[in-house]
Amino acid sequence: MPTLVRRRDALALAGAFGLSAFALPAWAQALSPAAPRRAALKNLHTGDAFNDVYFENGRYLPDALAEAQRVLRDWRTGDEHFMDPGLFDALHAIGDKLETRQPFQIISGYRSPKTNAMLHARSKGVASTSQHTQGKAVDVRIQGVELAHLQKAALAVGAGGVGFYPVSNFVHVDTGRVRQWRGA
């Protein structure tokens, strides 16, 4: 049975983010505190989509965050997990940098420990302690945007980790410490 993110949990955590802007990374603080922020997501495995405002009037919108998190669930198990709102902010900033409103095509969002262990056993390119299992990472591409341009925009935003996977055709973005790497 899938693990569900309760709206009350999303509200509590979103409130904590809204009240502690000083704890956010510098790049996130540079986002306008009053301007609405939108996420456009399309999960390539489930077909689920989200294209809505998740931040407005200086506050994260718990219902919108919960719906966006559902789109990022582990498609293999159906498990959902709280996703770092800063991840949506990073995607918003990357989309702005690229000047596109095309949805981010989601290859991988949240990964349950079971899924991550299976992928790690199959590939050296999957970390055993992946940011995906903590709700802090997505693997994405954008239709009509060259992968190298997506990678450059993600690096310019400086949100956290950026992995470039040209053979697999995606860019990994996470809200962990700032770092970069190239994979297959």
Task: Describe the 3D structure.
With 184 residues, this protein is α+β, with helices and mostly antiparallel strands. The protein has one domain (7-138). The chain contains 6 helices and 8 strands, in the order ααβββααβαβαβββ. It has helices at 7-19, 26-29, 62-71, 85-98, 113-122, 147-157, and strands at residues 37-43, 49-56, 59-60, 104-108, 137-142, 161-165, 170-174, 179-182. The chain has an 8-stranded mixed β-sheet. A hairpin with a 5-residue loop joins strand 1 (37-43) and strand 2 (49-56). The radius of gyration is 15 Å and the shape is globular. The model is unreliable at 1-5 and 10-22 (pLDDT under 50).
Mind sketching the topology for me?
Elements lengths: L6 H13 L6 H4 L7 E7 L5 E8 L2 E2 L1 H10 L13 H14 L5 E5 L4 H10 L14 E6 L4 H11 L3 E5 L4 E5 L4 E4 L2
Helix pairs in contact: 1-3, 4-6
Q: Total strand count, please? A: 8
Radius of gyration: 15 Å
Span between termini: 33 Å
Number of domains: 1
Topology order in helix (H) and strand (E) letters:
HHEEEHHEHEHEEE
Spatial order of the strands forming the largest sheet: 3-2-1-4-5-7-6-8
Class by alpha and beta content? alpha+beta
Arithmetic mean of pLDDT: 87
* Beta-strand residue fraction: 15-25%
Main sheet properties: 8 strands, mixed
Number of helices: 6
Low-pLDDT segments, ≥5 res: 1-5, 10-22
Shape: globular
Portion of residues in helices? 25-40%
